[in-house]
Write a structure and sequence with these properties.
Largest sheet: 2 strands, antiparallel
Number of helices: 8
Structural class: mainly alpha
């Protein structure tokens, strides 16, 4: 069926903002009457009622539950005694699903929630990579976690530091751990790793 565009002679009153038309169509008159009535009703509302209300559910509880489920299943894979490489990679897969769910939240959901969820999951995945002796991947994930959640995330700071040590990047590890201690304070594991790194660097200087 062909579509026809008809330009209607509409006019808006500069004072009342009411819309009128010279067209005598009953359907148009009815639509304009309803539109002008709605406009007057909105203008009569008190100021607080004119504010745009937030979405009824700012976060999707189903997605939150799915993210938490992936994290818990990944954690369970790493709690099975001596973790094999296969178990570690299964945990990596589960954490990756969780990260994708967290980062895939719609734009209207709180960014702080995304950072919190993703920050924890990247730290968890770093641990899984470490269990598989995949030090570069673990270091990258731990760094991402610390960027997303800088404070209250001592495990991420420690895990990247440990990965750097395992790769023999002692100087870089020392700088990273120092920054972590400035953020986290005298966090136990991080402080212990700092002593280990300092002892190694001092011993190397003596040998030189």
């Amino acid at each position: 069926m062909d579509e026809t565009f008809t330009l209607l002679p509409l006019r808006i009153d500069p004072q009342s903002k009411a819309i009128t038309s010279l067209d005598q169509s009953l359907s148009l008159k009815s639509d304009l009457t309803a539109l002008n009535s709605l406009h007057r009703t909105l203008l009569s509302l008190p100021p607080e009622a004119k504010q745009t209300p937030p979405p009824p559910l700012p976060t999707n509880p189903k997605r939150s539950a799915q993210v938490q489920k992936m994290r818990e299943q990944g954690n369970n894979s790493l709690r099975k005694g001596n973790v094999s490489a296969a178990q570690a990679m299964e945990a990596v897969k589960l954490y990756t699903y969780g990260i994708e769910m967290a980062l895939g939240r719609p734009g209207w959901e709180p960014a702080a929630l995304v950072r919190e969820e993703a920050g924890l999951l990247y730290a968890n995945r770093a641990q899984a990579y470490m269990a598989a002796s995949m030090w570069p991947e673990g270091a990258a994930d731990a760094e991402t976690s610390a960027e997303l959640k800088r404070m209250g995330n001592g495990k991420a700071w420690w895990r990247r530091g440990r990965c750097l040590v395992e790769m023999g990047r002692w100087e870089e590890a020392g700088k990273w751990i120092k920054e972590g201690l400035e953020v986290e304070g005298n966090e136990g594991e991080l402080a212990s790793l700092a002593k280990e790194v300092q002892k190694h660097l001092e011993g190397r200087e003596v040998l030189v």
